[in-house]
Amino acid sequence: xxYSIPKIPTPKPAKPNTAYLIANGDLRLSANQVxxxxxxxxxxxxIAAFANEGIKVIRxxxxxxxxxxxxxxNQRMGVDVFQSIPPEAPLIVAEAVWQYSYHILPGLRDHxxxxxxxxxxxxxxxxxxxxxxxNGSLTKMGVKYSTIWSENFDDPFFLKGIRQWIRTGRIKHxxxxxxxxxxxxxxxxxxxxxxxxxxxxxxRKAIIGVFDEGCMGMYNAIIPDSLLMPTGVYKERLSQSxxxxxxxxxxxxxxxxxxxxxxxxxxxxxxxxDEATELTEHQVLEQCKMYIAAVRMAAEFGCDLxxxxxxxxxxxxxxxxxxxxxxxxxxxxxxVYDEKTGEELYKGRAxxxxxxxxxxxxxxxxxxxxxxxxxxxxxxxxxHDVRWGRWYSGPANDDIxxxxxxxxxxxISGAAPPAHFVNGYAGAVSERQPPMYFPLGGGxxxxxxxxxxxxxxxxxxxxxxxxxxxGIAEVVKLPDAETEERLKLTTEQWPIMSxxxxxxxxxxxxxxxxANHINVVYAPNKAAAKKAMFAKAAAMKTLGLxxxxxxxx
Length: 553
Known about the structure:
Blueprint (H helix, E strand, L loop, with lengths): L17 E5 L6 H24 L3 E4 L15 H8 L8 E5 L9 H6 L4 E6 L6 H15 L4 E5 L5 H13 L9 E3 L7 H17 L1 E6 L13 H4 L4 E6 L1 H8 L4 H13 L3 E2 L11 H20 L4 E4 L13 H7 L30 H17 L5 E14 L8 E8 L18 E2 L21 E11 L2 E11 L4 H10 L7 E4 L5 H7 L4 E7 L2 H17 L3 E5 L3
Parallel strand pairs: 1-2, 1-3, 3-4, 4-5, 7-8, 7-10, 9-13, 15-18
Antiparallel strand pairs: 6-18, 11-12, 11-17, 12-16, 14-15, 14-17, 15-16
Helix pairs in contact: 6-15, 8-10, 9-10, 10-11, 12-15
Protein backbone atom coordinates (compact mmCIF):
# COMPACT_ATOMS: atom_id res chain seq x y z
CA UNK A 1 0.00 0.00 0.00
CA UNK A 2 1.36 3.42 -0.96
CA TYR A 3 1.84 6.10 1.65
CA SER A 4 0.47 9.51 0.72
CA ILE A 5 2.48 12.53 1.87
CA PRO A 6 0.39 14.96 3.94
CA LYS A 7 0.82 18.69 4.11
CA ILE A 8 3.42 19.84 6.61
CA PRO A 9 1.69 21.32 9.68
CA THR A 10 3.15 24.04 11.84
CA PRO A 11 4.39 22.47 15.09
CA LYS A 12 2.62 23.67 18.20
CA PRO A 13 4.63 24.82 21.21
CA ALA A 14 5.27 22.26 23.94
CA LYS A 15 2.77 22.24 26.79
CA PRO A 16 3.70 21.82 30.46
CA ASN A 17 3.20 18.36 31.98
CA THR A 18 2.71 16.86 28.53
CA ALA A 19 4.71 14.23 26.64
CA TYR A 20 4.25 12.75 23.19
CA LEU A 21 4.38 9.06 22.32
CA ILE A 22 5.31 7.31 19.08
CA ALA A 23 5.32 3.62 18.20
CA ASN A 24 7.73 2.50 15.52
CA GLY A 25 7.01 -0.77 13.78
CA ASP A 26 8.04 -3.26 11.17
CA LEU A 27 8.23 -2.77 7.44
CA ARG A 28 6.09 -5.89 6.96
CA LEU A 29 2.32 -5.42 7.19
CA SER A 30 1.73 -8.95 8.50
CA ALA A 31 4.12 -8.45 11.41
CA ASN A 32 2.58 -5.09 12.35
CA GLN A 33 -0.93 -6.53 12.34
CA VAL A 34 -0.04 -9.56 14.45
CA UNK A 35 1.89 -7.50 16.99
CA UNK A 36 -0.47 -4.55 17.28
CA UNK A 37 -2.62 -5.87 20.19
CA UNK A 38 0.48 -6.33 22.36
CA UNK A 39 1.73 -2.87 21.44
CA UNK A 40 -1.64 -1.28 22.24
CA UNK A 41 -1.81 -2.97 25.65
CA UNK A 42 1.73 -1.85 26.46
CA UNK A 43 0.98 1.75 25.49
CA UNK A 44 -2.05 1.89 27.75
CA UNK A 45 0.06 0.80 30.72
CA UNK A 46 2.77 3.34 29.91
CA ILE A 47 0.25 6.16 29.48
CA ALA A 48 -1.44 5.23 32.77
CA ALA A 49 1.90 5.19 34.61
CA PHE A 50 2.73 8.69 33.38
CA ALA A 51 -0.77 9.91 34.18
CA ASN A 52 -0.26 8.79 37.77
CA GLU A 53 2.80 11.07 37.83
CA GLY A 54 0.79 14.04 36.52
CA ILE A 55 1.96 13.79 32.90
CA LYS A 56 -0.49 13.70 30.02
CA VAL A 57 0.74 11.54 27.15
CA ILE A 58 -0.45 12.38 23.63
CA ARG A 59 -0.10 9.76 20.91
CA UNK A 60 1.49 11.54 17.94
CA UNK A 61 -0.06 9.33 15.25
CA UNK A 62 -3.35 7.50 14.97
CA UNK A 63 -4.41 3.90 14.53
CA UNK A 64 -5.00 3.16 10.84
CA UNK A 65 -8.24 1.17 10.42
CA UNK A 66 -7.33 0.19 6.88
CA UNK A 67 -3.88 -1.16 7.80
CA UNK A 68 -5.23 -2.50 11.11
CA UNK A 69 -2.35 -1.23 13.20
CA UNK A 70 -1.04 2.01 14.71
CA UNK A 71 2.66 1.76 13.93
CA UNK A 72 4.95 4.05 11.99
CA UNK A 73 5.76 1.67 9.16
CA ASN A 74 8.11 3.50 6.82
CA GLN A 75 10.60 6.35 6.84
CA ARG A 76 8.41 8.87 5.04
CA MET A 77 5.66 8.37 7.58
CA GLY A 78 8.16 8.77 10.39
CA VAL A 79 9.40 12.06 8.95
CA ASP A 80 5.84 13.33 8.61
CA VAL A 81 4.77 12.31 12.11
CA PHE A 82 7.52 14.45 13.61
CA GLN A 83 6.20 17.53 11.79
CA SER A 84 3.37 17.75 14.32
CA ILE A 85 5.42 17.01 17.46
CA PRO A 86 6.64 20.11 19.32
CA PRO A 87 10.45 19.99 18.92
CA GLU A 88 11.05 20.76 22.61
CA ALA A 89 8.45 18.34 24.00
CA PRO A 90 9.37 15.26 26.02
CA LEU A 91 9.10 12.26 23.68
CA ILE A 92 8.46 8.60 24.51
CA VAL A 93 9.30 5.87 21.98
CA ALA A 94 7.30 2.88 23.20
CA GLU A 95 8.24 -0.50 21.75
CA ALA A 96 6.66 -3.91 22.31
CA VAL A 97 7.89 -5.25 18.96
CA TRP A 98 10.82 -5.50 16.60
CA GLN A 99 11.08 -2.16 14.82
CA TYR A 100 12.96 -0.70 11.87
CA SER A 101 14.95 2.08 13.49
CA TYR A 102 15.52 4.08 10.32
CA HIS A 103 11.79 4.91 10.12
CA ILE A 104 12.17 7.41 12.95
CA LEU A 105 15.85 8.36 13.01
CA PRO A 106 15.39 11.53 10.89
CA GLY A 107 12.88 12.90 13.38
CA LEU A 108 14.83 11.79 16.45
CA ARG A 109 18.03 13.34 15.12
CA ASP A 110 16.48 16.82 15.10
CA HIS A 111 14.28 16.50 18.17
CA UNK A 112 15.42 18.85 20.93
CA UNK A 113 13.32 17.63 23.83
CA UNK A 114 14.25 14.73 26.11
CA UNK A 115 13.84 11.30 24.48
CA UNK A 116 12.89 8.13 26.37
CA UNK A 117 12.95 4.67 24.78
CA UNK A 118 10.69 2.18 26.57
CA UNK A 119 10.32 -1.57 26.08
CA UNK A 120 8.20 -4.36 27.48
CA UNK A 121 10.06 -7.11 29.35
CA UNK A 122 8.60 -9.95 27.29
CA UNK A 123 9.93 -12.96 25.43
CA UNK A 124 6.94 -13.32 23.15
CA UNK A 125 6.90 -9.72 21.99
CA UNK A 126 10.46 -8.59 21.17
CA UNK A 127 10.29 -4.98 22.27
CA UNK A 128 13.56 -5.45 24.16
CA UNK A 129 15.33 -6.44 20.95
CA UNK A 130 13.79 -3.54 19.06
CA UNK A 131 14.67 -1.04 21.77
CA UNK A 132 18.29 -2.20 22.00
CA UNK A 133 18.65 -1.73 18.26
CA UNK A 134 17.14 1.74 18.45
CA ASN A 135 19.43 2.62 21.36
CA GLY A 136 22.46 1.51 19.37
CA SER A 137 21.28 3.51 16.38
CA LEU A 138 20.79 6.66 18.45
CA THR A 139 24.23 6.18 19.99
CA LYS A 140 25.80 5.89 16.55
CA MET A 141 23.96 9.05 15.46
CA GLY A 142 25.10 10.99 18.54
CA VAL A 143 21.56 11.63 19.81
CA LYS A 144 21.10 11.81 23.59
CA TYR A 145 18.38 9.59 25.02
CA SER A 146 17.32 7.74 28.15
CA THR A 147 15.99 4.20 28.29
CA ILE A 148 13.83 2.04 30.58
CA TRP A 149 12.08 -1.36 30.49
CA SER A 150 9.46 -3.16 32.52
CA GLU A 151 7.17 -6.17 32.55
CA ASN A 152 4.05 -4.47 33.92
CA PHE A 153 5.13 -0.80 34.13
CA ASP A 154 4.26 -0.55 37.81
CA ASP A 155 7.44 -1.87 39.46
CA PRO A 156 9.76 0.35 41.58
CA PHE A 157 12.58 0.24 39.01
CA PHE A 158 10.36 1.57 36.24
CA LEU A 159 8.55 4.15 38.38
CA LYS A 160 11.79 5.48 39.84
CA GLY A 161 13.20 5.77 36.33
CA ILE A 162 10.31 7.70 34.80
CA ARG A 163 10.11 10.02 37.80
CA GLN A 164 13.78 10.86 37.29
CA TRP A 165 13.15 11.46 33.58
CA ILE A 166 10.14 13.68 34.27
CA ARG A 167 12.15 15.70 36.76
CA THR A 168 15.52 15.95 34.99
CA GLY A 169 15.03 14.78 31.39
CA ARG A 170 17.36 11.81 31.81
CA ILE A 171 17.68 8.46 33.58
CA LYS A 172 21.01 7.39 35.02
CA HIS A 173 21.55 3.63 35.21
CA UNK A 174 24.21 1.68 37.07
CA UNK A 175 27.06 0.72 34.71
CA UNK A 176 29.69 0.04 37.37
CA UNK A 177 30.29 -3.36 35.77
CA UNK A 178 32.16 -1.65 32.89
CA UNK A 179 35.91 -0.97 33.08
CA UNK A 180 38.11 0.52 30.38
CA UNK A 181 41.00 -1.64 29.17
CA UNK A 182 44.51 -0.77 30.26
CA UNK A 183 46.62 -2.54 27.64
CA UNK A 184 49.76 -2.44 29.77
CA UNK A 185 48.06 -4.44 32.51
CA UNK A 186 47.16 -7.40 30.32
CA UNK A 187 49.19 -10.62 30.69
CA UNK A 188 52.19 -10.47 28.36
CA UNK A 189 51.40 -13.62 26.36
CA UNK A 190 47.82 -12.62 25.60
CA UNK A 191 48.82 -9.07 24.78
CA UNK A 192 51.49 -10.33 22.38
CA UNK A 193 49.04 -12.67 20.65
CA UNK A 194 46.43 -9.96 20.20
CA UNK A 195 48.93 -7.44 18.90
CA UNK A 196 50.34 -9.96 16.42
CA UNK A 197 46.90 -10.77 15.01
CA UNK A 198 45.99 -7.10 14.68
CA UNK A 199 49.23 -6.24 12.91
CA UNK A 200 48.77 -9.21 10.57
CA UNK A 201 45.24 -8.09 9.75
CA UNK A 202 46.37 -4.55 9.02
CA UNK A 203 49.11 -5.78 6.70
CA ARG A 204 47.26 -8.55 4.91
CA LYS A 205 43.85 -6.80 4.81
CA ALA A 206 40.54 -8.65 4.93
CA ILE A 207 37.47 -8.54 2.71
CA ILE A 208 33.97 -8.86 4.10
CA GLY A 209 31.29 -9.70 1.55
CA VAL A 210 28.18 -7.66 2.30
CA PHE A 211 25.02 -8.85 0.57
CA ASP A 212 23.07 -5.55 0.69
CA GLU A 213 23.54 -3.25 3.70
CA GLY A 214 20.90 -2.00 6.08
CA CYS A 215 18.98 -5.18 6.87
CA MET A 216 15.96 -4.89 9.15
CA GLY A 217 16.45 -1.14 9.58
CA MET A 218 19.59 -1.70 11.66
CA TYR A 219 21.43 1.58 11.17
CA ASN A 220 23.67 0.67 14.10
CA ALA A 221 24.90 -2.44 12.25
CA ILE A 222 26.55 -0.49 9.42
CA ILE A 223 30.18 0.48 10.05
CA PRO A 224 31.15 3.58 8.06
CA ASP A 225 34.01 2.84 5.69
CA SER A 226 36.04 5.63 7.28
CA LEU A 227 36.01 3.73 10.60
CA LEU A 228 36.31 0.21 9.19
CA MET A 229 39.18 0.70 6.76
CA PRO A 230 41.78 1.70 9.40
CA THR A 231 41.31 -1.77 10.95
CA GLY A 232 42.47 -3.35 7.68
CA VAL A 233 38.97 -4.54 6.75
CA TYR A 234 37.23 -3.57 3.51
CA LYS A 235 33.78 -4.25 2.13
CA GLU A 236 32.96 -6.14 -1.04
CA ARG A 237 29.44 -4.91 -1.69
CA LEU A 238 27.45 -7.75 -3.21
CA SER A 239 23.84 -8.06 -4.30
CA GLN A 240 21.30 -10.56 -3.04
CA SER A 241 19.88 -10.74 -6.56
CA UNK A 242 23.33 -11.98 -7.67
CA UNK A 243 23.12 -14.64 -4.95
CA UNK A 244 19.78 -15.83 -6.32
CA UNK A 245 21.24 -15.84 -9.83
CA UNK A 246 24.18 -17.92 -8.59
CA UNK A 247 21.74 -20.39 -7.03
CA UNK A 248 20.39 -21.09 -10.51
CA UNK A 249 23.80 -22.36 -11.60
CA UNK A 250 23.85 -25.01 -8.85
CA UNK A 251 22.68 -28.42 -10.01
CA UNK A 252 19.96 -30.44 -8.33
CA UNK A 253 22.50 -33.19 -7.71
CA UNK A 254 24.84 -30.81 -5.87
CA UNK A 255 22.01 -29.60 -3.66
CA UNK A 256 20.93 -33.17 -2.98
CA UNK A 257 24.50 -33.99 -1.97
CA UNK A 258 24.47 -31.28 0.72
CA UNK A 259 21.11 -32.46 2.02
CA UNK A 260 22.23 -36.09 2.24
CA UNK A 261 25.46 -35.03 3.97
CA UNK A 262 23.37 -33.38 6.69
CA UNK A 263 21.06 -36.39 7.00
CA UNK A 264 24.06 -38.68 7.35
CA UNK A 265 25.30 -36.45 10.20
CA UNK A 266 22.04 -37.09 12.02
CA UNK A 267 20.39 -33.72 11.48
CA UNK A 268 16.59 -33.80 11.44
CA UNK A 269 14.19 -31.87 9.22
CA UNK A 270 10.56 -31.39 10.29
CA UNK A 271 9.03 -31.77 6.84
CA UNK A 272 5.48 -31.43 5.61
CA UNK A 273 3.74 -30.99 2.28
CA ASP A 274 2.07 -27.58 2.47
CA GLU A 275 4.48 -25.04 0.95
CA ALA A 276 2.58 -22.15 2.55
CA THR A 277 2.83 -23.29 6.15
CA GLU A 278 5.25 -26.23 6.41
CA LEU A 279 8.89 -26.95 5.66
CA THR A 280 9.20 -29.05 2.51
CA GLU A 281 12.07 -30.94 0.93
CA HIS A 282 11.92 -28.53 -2.01
CA GLN A 283 12.56 -25.58 0.32
CA VAL A 284 15.50 -27.36 1.96
CA LEU A 285 17.05 -28.19 -1.40
CA GLU A 286 16.78 -24.55 -2.42
CA GLN A 287 18.57 -23.62 0.81
CA CYS A 288 21.28 -26.14 -0.07
CA LYS A 289 21.68 -24.39 -3.42
CA MET A 290 22.00 -21.05 -1.62
CA TYR A 291 24.69 -22.53 0.63
CA ILE A 292 26.74 -23.67 -2.35
CA ALA A 293 26.17 -20.39 -4.19
CA ALA A 294 27.22 -18.31 -1.17
CA VAL A 295 30.49 -20.22 -0.73
CA ARG A 296 31.29 -19.94 -4.43
CA MET A 297 30.59 -16.22 -4.51
CA ALA A 298 32.72 -15.67 -1.40
CA ALA A 299 35.60 -17.52 -3.07
CA GLU A 300 35.12 -15.65 -6.34
CA PHE A 301 35.59 -12.31 -4.59
CA GLY A 302 38.23 -13.50 -2.12
CA CYS A 303 36.06 -12.83 0.92
CA ASP A 304 37.21 -13.78 4.40
CA LEU A 305 33.64 -13.75 5.66
CA UNK A 306 30.19 -12.80 4.37
CA UNK A 307 26.86 -11.45 5.59
CA UNK A 308 23.48 -12.12 3.97
CA UNK A 309 20.66 -9.66 4.59
CA UNK A 310 18.31 -12.45 5.70
CA UNK A 311 14.89 -11.03 5.00
CA UNK A 312 13.86 -8.04 2.93
CA UNK A 313 14.06 -8.72 -0.80
CA UNK A 314 15.53 -12.19 -0.42
CA UNK A 315 12.45 -13.54 1.38
CA UNK A 316 10.37 -12.84 -1.74
CA UNK A 317 12.84 -14.62 -4.04
CA UNK A 318 14.05 -17.67 -2.13
CA UNK A 319 13.56 -19.64 1.09
CA UNK A 320 15.15 -18.26 4.26
CA UNK A 321 18.94 -18.12 4.52
CA UNK A 322 19.16 -19.51 8.09
CA UNK A 323 20.28 -23.03 7.28
CA UNK A 324 22.98 -21.52 5.07
CA UNK A 325 24.20 -19.15 7.77
CA UNK A 326 24.55 -21.78 10.47
CA UNK A 327 26.45 -24.15 8.16
CA UNK A 328 28.88 -21.43 7.06
CA UNK A 329 29.88 -20.74 10.66
CA UNK A 330 30.73 -24.40 11.29
CA UNK A 331 34.16 -25.89 10.59
CA UNK A 332 32.62 -29.31 9.93
CA UNK A 333 30.21 -28.57 7.09
CA UNK A 334 29.21 -29.97 3.68
CA UNK A 335 32.04 -29.57 1.14
CA VAL A 336 31.61 -27.08 -1.69
CA TYR A 337 33.70 -27.31 -4.85
CA ASP A 338 34.80 -24.77 -7.43
CA GLU A 339 32.66 -25.05 -10.56
CA LYS A 340 35.66 -25.11 -12.91
CA THR A 341 38.62 -26.59 -11.05
CA GLY A 342 36.80 -28.93 -8.70
CA GLU A 343 38.90 -27.64 -5.80
CA GLU A 344 37.21 -27.73 -2.40
CA LEU A 345 36.59 -24.16 -1.23
CA TYR A 346 37.56 -23.02 2.30
CA LYS A 347 38.48 -26.62 3.05
CA GLY A 348 38.67 -27.54 6.70
CA ARG A 349 37.53 -24.19 8.03
CA ALA A 350 34.49 -22.09 8.64
CA UNK A 351 33.50 -19.28 6.32
CA UNK A 352 32.27 -16.92 9.06
CA UNK A 353 28.86 -15.42 8.41
CA UNK A 354 27.51 -12.31 10.15
CA UNK A 355 23.76 -12.69 10.41
CA UNK A 356 21.53 -9.88 9.12
CA UNK A 357 24.63 -8.23 7.60
CA UNK A 358 25.52 -6.85 11.02
CA UNK A 359 28.95 -5.50 10.11
CA UNK A 360 29.83 -4.91 13.77
CA UNK A 361 29.32 -8.63 14.33
CA UNK A 362 31.33 -9.28 11.17
CA UNK A 363 34.42 -7.45 12.38
CA UNK A 364 34.08 -9.29 15.68
CA UNK A 365 33.74 -12.69 13.97
CA UNK A 366 36.80 -12.03 11.81
CA UNK A 367 39.03 -11.31 14.82
CA UNK A 368 37.49 -14.19 16.78
CA UNK A 369 38.12 -16.72 14.04
CA UNK A 370 41.74 -15.64 13.71
CA UNK A 371 42.49 -15.74 17.43
CA UNK A 372 40.64 -18.95 18.26
CA UNK A 373 42.37 -20.71 15.35
CA UNK A 374 45.76 -19.59 16.67
CA UNK A 375 44.81 -20.72 20.16
CA UNK A 376 43.67 -24.08 18.72
CA UNK A 377 40.21 -23.56 20.24
CA UNK A 378 37.04 -24.42 18.33
CA UNK A 379 36.49 -21.20 16.33
CA UNK A 380 32.78 -21.50 15.61
CA UNK A 381 31.14 -18.19 16.45
CA UNK A 382 27.75 -16.64 15.94
CA UNK A 383 25.68 -13.73 17.07
CA HIS A 384 22.47 -13.98 19.06
CA ASP A 385 19.72 -11.56 19.94
CA VAL A 386 19.70 -10.41 23.54
CA ARG A 387 16.14 -11.63 23.49
CA TRP A 388 14.86 -11.89 27.06
CA GLY A 389 15.54 -13.61 30.38
CA ARG A 390 14.23 -14.43 33.83
CA TRP A 391 15.44 -15.76 37.13
CA TYR A 392 15.79 -19.53 37.36
CA SER A 393 16.30 -21.53 40.53
CA GLY A 394 16.63 -25.29 40.35
CA PRO A 395 18.45 -28.11 42.13
CA ALA A 396 21.30 -30.13 40.68
CA ASN A 397 20.92 -33.65 39.29
CA ASP A 398 23.19 -36.03 37.41
CA ASP A 399 23.90 -33.74 34.46
CA ILE A 400 22.62 -30.30 35.52
CA UNK A 401 24.41 -28.13 38.05
CA UNK A 402 22.38 -26.13 40.56
CA UNK A 403 21.36 -22.75 39.19
CA UNK A 404 20.03 -19.84 41.22
CA UNK A 405 20.60 -16.85 38.97
CA UNK A 406 19.22 -14.66 36.22
CA UNK A 407 19.46 -16.71 33.02
CA UNK A 408 19.36 -14.91 29.67
CA UNK A 409 17.74 -16.26 26.55
CA UNK A 410 20.22 -15.58 23.75
CA UNK A 411 18.38 -16.57 20.60
CA ILE A 412 19.33 -15.83 17.02
CA SER A 413 16.68 -15.64 14.32
CA GLY A 414 17.14 -19.10 12.91
CA ALA A 415 20.81 -20.07 12.62
CA ALA A 416 23.66 -21.09 14.88
CA PRO A 417 26.61 -23.43 14.16
CA PRO A 418 25.93 -27.07 15.10
CA ALA A 419 29.23 -27.15 17.02
CA HIS A 420 27.47 -25.02 19.64
CA PHE A 421 24.69 -27.56 20.21
CA VAL A 422 24.37 -30.46 22.57
CA ASN A 423 25.22 -33.46 20.32
CA GLY A 424 26.20 -31.26 17.36
CA TYR A 425 24.43 -32.12 14.11
CA ALA A 426 22.63 -34.99 15.83
CA GLY A 427 21.13 -32.42 18.21
CA ALA A 428 20.14 -30.07 15.39
CA VAL A 429 16.73 -29.77 13.79
CA SER A 430 15.42 -27.61 10.98
CA GLU A 431 11.92 -26.15 11.37
CA ARG A 432 10.03 -23.85 9.05
CA GLN A 433 10.44 -20.15 9.64
CA PRO A 434 7.10 -18.48 10.56
CA PRO A 435 5.04 -17.79 7.40
CA MET A 436 4.33 -14.29 8.75
CA TYR A 437 7.94 -13.43 7.94
CA PHE A 438 8.86 -15.92 5.20
CA PRO A 439 6.24 -16.59 2.52
CA LEU A 440 8.56 -18.95 0.64
CA GLY A 441 9.48 -20.92 3.75
CA GLY A 442 12.88 -22.31 4.53
CA GLY A 443 14.16 -24.10 7.59
CA UNK A 444 16.14 -22.89 10.57
CA UNK A 445 19.22 -24.49 12.09
CA UNK A 446 17.99 -25.02 15.63
CA UNK A 447 19.50 -26.60 18.69
CA UNK A 448 20.08 -26.15 22.42
CA UNK A 449 23.53 -24.72 23.16
CA UNK A 450 25.80 -26.96 25.20
CA UNK A 451 26.89 -25.97 28.72
CA UNK A 452 30.29 -24.34 29.00
CA UNK A 453 32.13 -21.04 29.09
CA UNK A 454 31.94 -18.45 26.34
CA UNK A 455 33.46 -15.11 25.52
CA UNK A 456 30.75 -12.62 24.58
CA UNK A 457 31.35 -9.30 22.90
CA UNK A 458 29.95 -6.44 20.89
CA UNK A 459 31.47 -3.92 18.51
CA UNK A 460 29.43 -0.72 18.51
CA UNK A 461 29.62 2.64 16.82
CA UNK A 462 29.72 6.20 18.09
CA UNK A 463 29.70 9.06 15.59
CA UNK A 464 33.47 9.00 15.12
CA UNK A 465 34.69 5.94 16.99
CA UNK A 466 34.44 2.15 17.09
CA UNK A 467 34.01 0.58 20.52
CA UNK A 468 34.29 -2.95 21.85
CA UNK A 469 32.70 -4.41 24.98
CA UNK A 470 33.53 -7.95 26.11
CA GLY A 471 33.19 -10.35 29.01
CA ILE A 472 32.90 -14.03 29.80
CA ALA A 473 29.70 -15.91 30.54
CA GLU A 474 28.51 -19.39 31.40
CA VAL A 475 26.08 -21.32 29.23
CA VAL A 476 24.06 -23.56 31.52
CA LYS A 477 21.96 -26.62 30.92
CA LEU A 478 18.40 -26.19 32.17
CA PRO A 479 15.83 -28.94 32.60
CA ASP A 480 14.11 -29.84 29.35
CA ALA A 481 10.79 -28.47 30.57
CA GLU A 482 12.32 -25.07 31.39
CA THR A 483 14.09 -24.91 28.02
CA GLU A 484 10.91 -25.80 26.16
CA GLU A 485 8.95 -23.19 28.07
CA ARG A 486 11.55 -20.55 27.22
CA LEU A 487 11.36 -21.51 23.55
CA LYS A 488 7.57 -21.26 23.56
CA LEU A 489 7.77 -17.88 25.30
CA THR A 490 10.10 -16.59 22.56
CA THR A 491 10.37 -18.20 19.10
CA GLU A 492 10.39 -21.98 19.28
CA GLN A 493 11.80 -22.49 15.77
CA TRP A 494 15.10 -20.80 16.70
CA PRO A 495 18.30 -21.97 18.44
CA ILE A 496 18.63 -21.04 22.10
CA MET A 497 21.55 -20.33 24.45
CA SER A 498 20.78 -20.15 28.20
CA UNK A 499 23.39 -17.82 29.64
CA UNK A 500 24.51 -16.40 32.98
CA UNK A 501 26.60 -13.21 32.86
CA UNK A 502 28.73 -13.09 36.06
CA UNK A 503 28.88 -9.67 37.66
CA UNK A 504 26.30 -8.17 35.30
CA UNK A 505 22.71 -7.79 36.38
CA UNK A 506 19.77 -7.74 34.01
CA UNK A 507 19.45 -3.98 34.20
CA UNK A 508 23.17 -3.33 33.87
CA UNK A 509 23.28 -5.35 30.65
CA UNK A 510 20.30 -3.48 29.22
CA UNK A 511 21.69 -0.10 30.25
CA UNK A 512 25.07 -0.61 28.59
CA UNK A 513 24.49 -2.83 25.55
CA UNK A 514 24.30 -0.82 22.33
CA ALA A 515 22.80 -3.42 20.01
CA ASN A 516 20.16 -6.10 19.67
CA HIS A 517 22.97 -8.57 18.87
CA ILE A 518 25.71 -10.14 20.97
CA ASN A 519 28.62 -12.23 19.64
CA VAL A 520 29.46 -15.53 21.38
CA VAL A 521 32.21 -18.14 21.05
CA TYR A 522 33.07 -21.12 23.27
CA ALA A 523 36.34 -21.69 25.11
CA PRO A 524 37.51 -24.99 26.64
CA ASN A 525 37.00 -23.75 30.20
CA LYS A 526 36.71 -20.61 32.29
CA ALA A 527 40.47 -19.99 32.49
CA ALA A 528 40.78 -20.40 28.72
CA ALA A 529 37.86 -18.03 28.16
CA LYS A 530 39.59 -15.39 30.26
CA LYS A 531 42.87 -15.87 28.37
CA ALA A 532 41.17 -15.62 24.98
CA MET A 533 39.17 -12.57 26.05
CA PHE A 534 42.39 -10.76 26.99
CA ALA A 535 43.96 -11.58 23.62
CA LYS A 536 40.87 -10.42 21.79
CA ALA A 537 40.76 -7.19 23.77
CA ALA A 538 44.42 -6.55 22.90
CA ALA A 539 43.71 -7.16 19.22
CA MET A 540 40.73 -4.80 19.16
CA LYS A 541 42.67 -2.10 21.01
CA THR A 542 45.53 -2.38 18.53
CA LEU A 543 43.04 -2.08 15.66
CA GLY A 544 42.00 1.28 17.12
CA LEU A 545 38.83 0.47 19.05
CA UNK A 546 37.93 1.73 22.51
CA UNK A 547 37.83 -1.45 24.61
CA UNK A 548 35.96 -2.13 27.85
CA UNK A 549 35.65 -5.22 30.04
CA UNK A 550 32.24 -5.99 31.50
CA UNK A 551 31.37 -8.09 34.53
CA UNK A 552 33.42 -10.50 36.61
CA UNK A 553 36.14 -12.81 35.34
